[in-house]
Each structure stands twice: as C-alpha cells, then as structure tokens.
C-alpha cells in the first residue's frame, strides 16, 4: 500500500478518535462576556448582537433573563443552534440580567451572568444664566451646573460651547481645561476670555450621537494693572479606579501664571514618563492613564505643578479592584475519572487586597444547585472544595460550577467531570514461572478500557541486584508490536546457565493512559545453580559486539601497516655493498682489483662519471642463457666455498686466501 494512503488513513482515524472524545464530553463555554451592555430604548438597533459559543459535540443554546427563558419575539431574536442573542428594538422589559446555557447529552455549561442596561442621555433643566467674575491672571472656574445623566460613562464627554448654537467650542489648551466633573477651568485668565458671549456646558453621548447643552454662564474679567508671577496651586485632583486588567485615570490640575507643567510620580517613587506601555499622559499633562491595571499598581501617586517654582505634592489614590478571583493551582480543573473513584474540585475564591471578602462559593451541576446530603457530595474548607465520591458514568458526568461574589462583581467558574470505564484486565500471566535453557515463555496480557481512550503498555525488569530498566526487544526478549502487551522470553538457543540466570528477576507490566493505570507483577526464577556473576542479556550482547568491533579494527590496522612497510621496502633503490662483506672476510678489495685487471669497473659506492662504460645491447648474443652456464664464467666448476654464507661471491679471493694460509690451519 502506498505510504501516502497509509498516512491519510492514520490521520483520518486520529481525527475520528479526537472527535469521538469531544462528542462524549459535556459542553465547555468558550465565549467571554462584558459585565454590562448598554442599548438605547425605543430605537432600531443595527449592532446589538451577543454571541454565546461552547465546544464539545452537538449543542443546544438557551438564553435566560432574570432566571426566565427568553422567547423569540418581534424585538428579540434567539438562535438555539448558534447561541446568538439579537436585540432589534429594546423595550423596557428587555433590560435585566442575562445568562447563556449550552446543553448537550452529557451536561450544561453556563456563561457568567451580565447586565443589559439602557443607554441614556438626559437634558439640562431650564434656568437663567449665571455670572462669574474673575481677576486677570488668576484662576477662574465655570461650573457645569445640573449636568444630566449620561450612560455609560465610557460613551459620554463634556464639550464647552461659546455663543449661540453648538458649533463653536471653547479651545482646550495648556491654559484652559475641563476637570472630571465637567467644570471649565482657566488656569489664568486674560481679558480676551470675556467677549460678552455666554459659555454653555454640553454633554455628548457617542452611542446615541446626541448632544445636549445648558448651564449658561456669563464671564466677567477684572483687568489687572500689573503682570504678577503666580506659583502653581492645585485646583483639582481626582482619584482613580479600575477593574483588574482594565484602564484607570488619575487627574491633577494646577493654576499659575504662566500655566505650570505637571509631573507624575509612581508609588515606587519613580518619575513617570509618557514613553512606555504602562502609562499614558494626556490633556497637557493633567491626565495620567494606567493602561492595564495590576494589583501592584495600586497605591498613592504624586502630582506636582512645576513652573519657576514647584507646588507642594498632591496625592491621588489609584484603586485596582475586581470580582473574586481564583488563587492557587488546580483551580476548577477538568477531571476525567474512572468509575468508582473520587473527583475533587477546588474553588478558592479571594478578593484583591483592601477589598471586601467574597461570599462562600455556591456549587452547581449543569446550572442547578447541588443538594449536599447523603454523602455523594462533600464540601470542605468553607465550601471552597467539592468532592464527588464513587463517581458513576451516567449520573455524575457533567459540568460543575462554583459561584462567588463581592462588591465588585460575580465569579463563575466551571469544570467538566467525565466518568470513564476503568482499565479492566481480561487475561494475565501467573505470578511466577521457572525457566531453564531451551524454554520459551510467553507472558500475554489482554486488557480494555473506555472506548474513547487508548491503552499503553510498558514492561520493566528488575534483576537480582535490584537494577531496574525498561525492557526492549533483543535476542532473548521479544515484545509484541504495536501494542506491546505480550512479552516472550526465548532461551531455546541458550546453553550458558549464566544467561538464563541473568533473565531471572521481577517483571512488571504497567498498563496505563492519562487517567488510570494497572500494574501486573511476574517473578521469573530458575533452578540452575551458577557461580558466574549474572549480567543483563542486553549488556552481554552489547559487550560482545563491542569486542568484535575492536578486534576487527586492530586486525585491519595491522594489515595496513604491513602492506605500507612492504611497499616502502620494495621502492627503496641502491646497490648492494660488497666492501663491508669482503673486509669482514679478511680481504682487501682495492688491492685485488688492481692485481686482477678490473680497473675499468667503478666502485659500487662511486657516483657515475663521464668515462663510465655504456652497456652495448649487441653483446646480448654473448650472454649465457641458463644459470649453470653463467656460473661457468668463474673457472668452470662451481665451488661452494667461493661464496660467503650470505650468498655473496668471493671467487678467486678464496683461492688466494688458501695459498696464504698454512695447511695446518683450519679454514675459517
């Protein structure tokens, strides 16, 4: 079969297994929700959709408002298959606390409850204009009186207008600003601020795209005869508050002539710069924004007005708050537990420092309050720990929720409990066996578990010395593939008692998956008595292979050295030196050459000279063909005493030596 087809089939099978597991799980909510949603009343809405989404299988969605199921209506649309809640036109009855319920055959998952509120903008009451008198170069404030309700705050802002209509805004700059209450501040005034036109406070609601104006004020400026320098003076400051992870704002405003700068100092005594991702400074230094509130950012911040002189420090407090949060590890963690075991859930809800403590957790299953009686459910540690005892596959599988609240909000966390079939051993080997050379022992195991999970097997061997290791197939151990559930000990070809003894010990099979395991122990013994220290068969095989590799390498190296030596010796040039041999035999080669007429021959150790005789190839016809004839050049019969013991020829030198030597002496 083509390997590509095999790969496709394998991936398809794995996908089916994963989907099968998901289909057997209770739902798990994956959508996140705001604490509050704002929509205007009696208006046609185009972007008023809230989505609820959960995972695991085929899911049906239900929305509840104030604990009652929300039906489809002319102005509210519910899609039970996708979880979509859509408002077409808000009526007064449509505002309230909403919650999404996602249900399949194995349980129900909940969203956290959230509020749907009315997006509002009121109006200024009718009234007569007021007059405000200020001195030139001094601070002056115009109050936004009777400011109407505007919700939500994030969609509202104050805009000051001057003159008739709503198109002319008061310019906001370093000298002129608006505080958190909406009041207009002139940090120092000049006569141009009095142009006989009325100042009016306006409130803009972004979601409704609506502006209302009111609080008409006439400003009169008393001219100054001199231009004094005025030190910075705090005229407004505002504490800040933010939810954990959200944005928070602090405000400080200083009067003075000229208008002072504003410096911010953190609780850790560091001067804050508008150059990082932690803070943002805006409104000409008068607003400090903490971009992502963390508990450690809580504390007193310092603001200072800085001109030619510096103002006294002003303290503003930043409060980081939150609904209850879970602390510690393993909080509301999904559990997959075999039948008959115990499941434990932890919901250790705490408030942030300096906040009111949360309520004790309330436990639910599939959105319904648990009845804590009869021993099935056990709560402890002020209801922060829930135990589900003796779990059963049908009745206890589901989604479990814990709820706790404080002054800032509600915590709802949930965890899934899936009850599975335990690992069951259908066939297993005996507890002990004895082996001798020639045996084959098969340790076979048959086990099964929940259909959504796959079993794994691991064989472990502990020898007589207590050394433990995982078993791998080798000469004596054979593990079945691919399941590894059978182990064969094969000593049919073994005659060495030490090998058999090395296979004796404790065998352990671990049958497991992520959520359960079983152990089978088997002892292997032998009646063979051996004095040889047993070794692991794997180690023996490894040592034998290592020795063979070393021996082959050494032999190869020796052969290479011999071949190289022979080649070097063969290629060495030069002539055989006769002089040393002759002198050692008591002869004088120089003198004898002169006496016997070999003067035309060069010495063996002489360099070639110009008069060196050249060989004439025409003389080849005079060469004697066989070895015997060639020896005949030396006076006929071959006499062995004319050769040295190393085979060098001494010829007539031997006769000459005999003539000089007395007959009474022995030949040397």
TrEMBL record:
Keywords noted in UniProt: Cell adhesion, Disulfide bond, Membrane, Repeat, Transmembrane, Transmembrane helix
Superkingdom classification of source: Eukaryota
GO BP terms in the entry: axon guidance; cell-cell adhesion
SUPFAM superfamilies: Immunoglobulin (SSF48726)
InterPro entries per the UniProt record, alphabetical: Ig-like_dom, Ig-like_dom_sf, Ig-like_fold, Ig_I-set, Ig_sub, Ig_sub2, Neurofascin/L1/NrCAM_C
Pfam families listed in its UniProt record: Bravo_FIGEY, I-set, Ig_3
Ranges of residues in domain Ig-like: 27-111, 228-303, 324-418
Main location: membrane
Annotated compartments: Membrane
GO cellular component: axon; plasma membrane
Protein name as annotated: Neural cell adhesion molecule L1
Organism from which the protein derives: Magallana gigas
